[in-house]
User: Fold these one by one.
Assistant:
Number 1:
Amino acid sequence: MKKRPLTLCIILLLMMISTAAMTASLSVTLDAATPVGEQARALTAYICELPPAQQEEWLEEISAFLTSQKTFFAQPATDREETIVYVTDKGQRYHSQTTCSGLKKAINISGVTKEVALAMGRTPCKICYPGGD
């Protein structure tokens, strides 16, 4: 049961890393089909090529993320927020169901925990959550 939330956390971290990488002149490509060790080496090489101030910023962000995940997984599963919501790769909202009319044109819909969606900066869909969430 712990493997699924950990996988979602890793995916979130990889998404944050790849988003930041796309905005920099350097790049790193992360892919769920590539072994984690290989991706970790690619990320390490990427960070090592950054200016020292950006290296420090990356290390702080990664450390904060890992600390938050240790706290999350230290809680009993019954205490965790494990509501599954649905997001797209380009949208800014999360949805309670895949049949939401706000997802009609969506190509890639992923189920993630609400906590992950919030960490991705997503806000509740006004159709799925008319009174807010």
Note: Helices lie at 3-23, 36-49, 52-74, 114-119.
Number 2:
Amino acid sequence: MSPPSPRPGQQTAAVVDLGALLADPAQASAYYVDARDTEAMAAAGATLEFAVARIDLAGCTDKAVALDRLARALRFPAWFGGNWDALADCLGDLGWWPAEGYLLLIEHVWQWRAQDRAEFDTLLAILTEAAMEWAGRGKAFWVLFPLPADQLAALEPD
């Protein structure tokens, strides 16, 4: 599996219409982005009437903590099982949170990604699959991992 692209919809133009980009389900997926763009991305998602969720993984030590933070931020129902399969099921439904699209801003991921790359890669695969499934329904599902410039520059293609 290849890592998410450093920037969604890379373009040569200096200015990107974030609203137009985010509204396009065909481009929606999981991406690392410059943390300086976080607020602009969140505002553009809100303008589009997307459900915008900010998930802070600072200090995340393991899969259970990551799943708990995702479940709380995404308002998962009580039946959420706290495992990867249950995460995939909930992301594929989201009937309890109807919206024009979805924008997940998963912040402070770097430490957990470095500490447990296998679990992070599993999360990434589930999120990417959810984005593809939602795109098939004509709805954008974005997952953005805002990183400081130095961490963004340190990413190496697998």
Note: The first helix runs from residue 18 to 23.
Number 3:
Amino acid sequence: MDLSSALNVSQPVMLSSTERSEVEKFVRDHNLKLDPTGTGRQTNQSLGRDDFLKILITQLSYQDPTSPMQDKEFIAQMAQFSTLEQMTAMASDFNKLTAMLMGNEASSALGKGVELIEGDRVIQGTVQAVTRGDFPQVLVNGAFYNWEQVVKVFADEKENVASY
């Protein structure tokens, strides 16, 4: 739909370059008020369970009473929904398992020498403390670093010193 039809104008709306830039500025400013980060709306290309239920309810609401949805179709859609629920639960469980394994791995490095990368710097030291959770961190040389930054773990401090 263009501006002319939206305004019920039979002739196209002609704007001067100044008017056009003012309108563009107004639209840009208004959009920034709606989305201060300027990142825009992120679209999701996959359907979730809420979307699936909305589609199913809409189908059931608007079906022709003289020719209702076939049992096979309904059962197939419910099976798809059940599969979607199971996959969502499994993905959530895998995320929890990954976080737990990362936390255990970080904890096992306590007291050991490590080498980690932060930007362009390579930092070496002994793990003095570990935080657990979804994103475990290790305390090395008085600063906390994400466990994902660790690239090497040494068996003990002697091996760490010998490798330098």
Note: The first strand starts at residue 113 and ends at 118.
